[in-house]
Amino acid sequence: MTQSCLVHSFERCAPLESAEIELLESLERDSREFPKHTVVRAQRAPVEHFFTIRSGWACAFRILPNGERQILDVFLPGDVMGLCDIAYPLSISGLATLTDAELCPFPRARLTELFARCPRLANLFFMINAREQAMLLERVVNLGRRKAIQKLAHFLVEIVVRLRRTNPDLDDAFPLPLSQALLADTLGLSEIHINRTLRKLRERGLVEVNAGEIRLLDRDRLQALAEFDPIYLKEDAGWM
Amino acid sequence: MTQSCLVHSFERCAPLESAEIELLESLERDSREFPKHTVVRAQRAPVEHFFTIRSGWACAFRILPNGERQILDVFLPGDVMGLCDIAYPLSISGLATLTDAELCPFPRARLTELFARCPRLANLFFMINAREQAMLLERVVNLGRRKAIQKLAHFLVEIVVRLRRTNPDLDDAFPLPLSQALLADTLGLSEIHINRTLRKLRERGLVEVNAGEIRLLDRDRLQALAEFDPIYLKEDAGWM
DNA sequence: CGATGGATTGACAATATTCAAAGACAGTGG
DNA sequence: CCACTGTCTTTGAATATTGTCAATCCATCG
Fold first, then answer.
1. pTM for this structure?
2. Which nucleotide is nearest to B212 (CA to C1')?
3. In terms of Cα–Cα distance, which of A132, A168, A146 is closest to A228?
4. CB A54 within 8 A of CB A6
5. Nearest residue: Cα versus C1' of D9
6. Taking CB atoms and an 8 Å cutoff, what residues of chain A touch B130?
7. Helices B119-145 and B148-166 meet at what angle, rounded to 10?
C-alpha cells in the first residue's frame, strides 16, 4: 500500500499501472514540513515548483493593492496546489499553509519530462487540473450568485465532502483552521458579516462551533440551503 | 500563413514546429456555424467535444435551481472553450454563443491520442488550460473583493486587452454583444445595478455607449479604477 | 500578569436588490 | 405605412443585504 497522496489522488480518477505509480511516487520523494501560516511561495515569485499536500491545509491567495485579501483556493491532503501558476514566469497568486503541513515540491521542469515519458499520466494531470477548474467555477457561482448564508453553507459542505474522500469515516465534525477573517476573505465578505452569518447558522440549528472545531448538525438542510450539487466533486472519470 | 485560430492561440505561447502545426490544424478541419444565442451544449449534457472559436463570441454559463444565471466565462476568437468539462461524463456548465459564431468541435477522445503522439502539444494544452484557470482566479477576485464599478471597469479592460491580441490594431471601441442582463450575470450583480453603474462610468467620462458599441475613453483611469493588472493575460511562457 | 489575536455585539452607513413603471427600439404582420 | 410585440434600457422609491467603526470579551501564551 502506497503512502503517496498523489497516487491516491490519481487513483480516485482512474486505475494506475505499477510503472505509473512508481513514476508518481518518485515525484513525491522529498517532502518538506512547513509550520502553520507560512508563505510557501509569495505572489510574483519565480515559479520553480508546484506542490502536493501530504498532510495539513493550505491555500492560494491574492493580496490586492489596497491591502485587501482574497483566498482563491483551499487545499486539503491529496490535492495538488500551484498548478495554474506554472504557465507564468512569476506566480500570480501566493501559496500559504493554514496549518502545519507536509508539502511535496515538484519541479516544474519534470512535468514536461513526465508528459514525454508517460502520456497517460499527462492525461490524468490534465483531468486533475480540469477538476480543479470545475471547483473554481463553483466558487465563481458561489461568489456571484449566492447570499452570505448560502455561501458559508456551501463552503462548509464542500469542505466536508472533500475531507471525506481521503478520510471516508469522518463524521460531520472537523477542525476548521480558518479564522473568521480568513473565511471572510474566502467568501468575499467582511469579517463581521461572517460572524453574524455563522451565528445565524447556529441559531437555525445547522452547525455547532467550539474551539476551532465545527460540526454540521443537519447536512441535508445545509445542502438544500446552499443549493449544493456534488456533481463537480465526483471523481471517477469513468471513461479513461 | 495558417487560418487556424488554435494555431495562433498556441503560437502566442511558444513557437511551433510544422508537424505540430499540422496536427493542430487537423483538429480544426470541420467548423460549424452557430447563430447568435444558441446553446451549443446544455448543462448536464454528455461531453463529447470541446471547441475552438474561429469567430464570434461565446460563453459558459450555469443556471441555478432558482432560475438565476451565472456567466462563468466569456470566450473570444482564438479561445478554447469547454476544456474543463472534459473531466466529467456530463457537463457541469452550459456553452452558448453570444453572437453568430464559427466553432470547431474537437472530439475529446482525440485529445488523448494527441497527448500520446505529441508530448510538446500536451504541454502546451496544459499551459493554455493554466492560463484559462488564471483568468478564472482573476474573476474570483473580481467577484469577491471589488465594488460594482470596479467589477465593470475590470471586465471591460480585460475584454479589450484580450480582443487586441487577435486584433492588434483595435482601438478603444468595440461592439459589446452582452445585454445589461448578461453583464449582470457575468459580474454577479442585478441588471438594474449594472445600468446605474454603467451610467456612473459614463458620467465620469470613462466610457461611451451607443448601439451595442462601447468606447473606452480613458483606459488609464479605467485601469486604475479597476486595479487591473495585466500580468495574468501575458502569454509568452518564455521557458518552453 | 499584560499582550495578543480572535470572536462578539451594537449602531450606523454604504452598497446593492426588488418592485414598478415608462421610454426606446427593432422586427412582424396587417 | 402603421400598430403591435417583445426585448432592452432607464429611472424612482422602498427595502434588504452587507460593510464600517468602535468597543468589549475571551482564551492563550509568553
1. 0.94
2. D8
3. A146
4. no
5. B195
6. 83-88, 129
7. 160
